[in-house]
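Session log. Operator J.P. requested a structure for one protein chain; no other inputs attached. Running the standard single-chain path with token output.
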Amino acid sequence: MSASHKLVDPLPDWVPSAARLYLIHTEDGRSLRALARERGVHASTVMRQVRRFEHRRDDPLVDCALGRLRRVATGNLDPESKESRNMTLHIRSASREAGALLDEDRLNAEALRVLRRLAEPGVIMAVAADMDRAVVLRDGAEGAIRLAVLERPVAEAFALREWIACSKAGRVARYTITSQGRAALRRLIDGVEADGERDEDESARGRYCQAESPVAVLARRRDKDGKPFLGADLLIAAERLREDFEVAQTGPQVTQDWGRFLTAGVGNGIQGGGAGRGPAAARDRLAAALAELGPGLGEIALRCCCHLEGLETAEQAMGWSARSGKIVLRIALMRLKRHYDSLGDSAKMIG
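Structure written below.
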């Protein structure tokens, strides 16, 4: 193998050791016996790991992840080069840059946000071959409800770490969380709870440990006429608010005081149609939504949709009478839906 194909840069810390062995063997041309001697293990152990990753390339996300790591490590970032033409999926330039910059801190932040949603009942991740993002969905009675969006390189890293597995292949592949993914989520949650910098935010620990959104639980309740207390459109609005909140938390301003947007007059001049990606655009959309709701409605939405406080807890914190919270929350979600409807498709994060 020519020197131009040698690995020149170290791989990110989050890359599994078996994947490293596979790339060193295939790119550097190092023999299995040589790799085994360096690591002090039997050659058959290295061979099993290398062969296992070769078989795992049937998974489109794993295949793309290995190809992306190979290009980054060899300094060849051109997916149209001769060495890259056997890739099974087209990768856009924005995704290539995100993949090259993906480090362990960002991976863990995204895992905490996304794996928690995948751990909820009936939730899957959908990945289309011609899109540079993946979407997390929950199948509902009135159709799928979007819960989160993530960049494709992040989804590829999840698959490479075996946190997710393909449950249905096809033009739009479906992925579900694995036992390794649930274990990783527990470790990340334990890390958040042990982090002294986050100890001041009691709601954060509750949010990370919640198995399901209180709004989703409320949506399953029926009124006296047997109809859902919250329609699918209101649940979608709640999930959209939570999605922006979660994405905003992955940025540098994780200690953002959202309470200031609940004060009358603070939100003047805020534009809510930000269609950009990333934490900054999500913060703008969230700030505009809270400013639109105003005090009271904004606080109950922030508590129940974003901080995942139960209705009883929110009622006590806000000094409201028992069983009044669900009525106010429904009014808040109706106004929130009207706000999102006024923005049209411009504020959506996937399309």
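Operator note: Confidence is low (pLDDT under 50) at residues 1-5, 79-99, 196-200, 263-270.
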